[in-house]
Design brief:
This protein is an alpha/beta fold. It has helices at about 15-30, 40-45, 50-60, 65-80, 95-105, 115-125, 150-160, 170-180, 195, 210-220; strands at about 5, 15, 90, 105-110, 135, 165-170, 185-190, 205. It catalyses: 2-phosphoglycolate + H2O = glycolate + phosphate.
């Protein structure tokens, strides 16, 4: 079965505003105020909680304080869980593309480096979890992207064939995952990292989800 697998943050949804808010809650707890900007630091936010904490600590002159970053990380996750869908929005056309692919006989799934519990919570809050045949997160398996087994197992859980799949993403991590798995990658050009994705050399870059069905047909039939 042909399968289209989606990354979540920066690919299906712009989650950066809620991620930055969670990181800033940590810095306020440290008594230093907001250290991240929801617009300027959106790209960093989509690289995950530790990336945001590391950037904020660098701005405090404490970039080497790994112990504090480790201490703050679970605090960030809890703050994020409490307000996970305040600012988050699905990208235009994303769910229409997912529905169209499903109707055309493709399996669709999510493979994200967000913790699975939080990914499922967000998809439930957005009302779209049921549109996907499988969802795996950073802690679902013993490995995570860019390890190709994360992608392959996601496809298998969706009922698909890992060698008849592709990964839709927005970062070098997604590109490297697909390449390691021996399948095509389609990167989105409309997220915070969009300006640089073409330089990676994916099989396709899309500027809007309207383009995805045709690209999928071309790449995996």
């Amino acid at each position: 079965m042909r399968t289209v697998v989606f990354d979540l943050d920066g690919t299906l949804a712009d989650t950066s505003g809620d991620l930055v808010a969670a990181a800033n809650a940590c810095f306020r707890g440290l008594g230093v105020g907001d250290m991240l900007d929801p617009v300027a630091d959106a790209g960093v936010a989509l690289r995950g909680g530790r990336a945001m904490l590391s950037l904020g600590m660098e701005r405090l002159g404490r970039g080497a304080d790994v112990a504090e970053i480790d201490r703050q990380y679970p605090i960030l996750l809890e703050a994020y869980a409490q307000a996970i869908d305040v600012h988050t929005t699905l990208y235009p056309g994303a769910m229409e593309a997912v529905a169209g692919l499903s109707d055309a006989g493709y399996k669709v799934a999510i493979c994200t480096n967000k913790p699975e519990r939080l990914a499922r919570l967000l998809m439930e809050r957005l009302g779209v979890l049921g549109a996907f045949a499988a969802l795996t997160g950073a802690d679902t398996l013993a490995v995570r992207k860019p390890d190709p087994e994360h992608l392959r197992e996601t496809v298998r859980r969706a009922g698909g064939d890992p060698m008849r799949s592709l990964l839709v993403g927005d970062t070098v991590t997604d590109f490297d995952t697909a390449r390691a798995a021996g399948v095509p990658s389609v990167l989105v050009g409309f997220g915070p990292n969009g300006a640089a994705v073409a330089d990676l050399g994916p099989e396709a870059v899309i500027g809007h989800y309207d383009e995805l069905p045709g690209v999928v047909t071309r790449l995996i039939g």
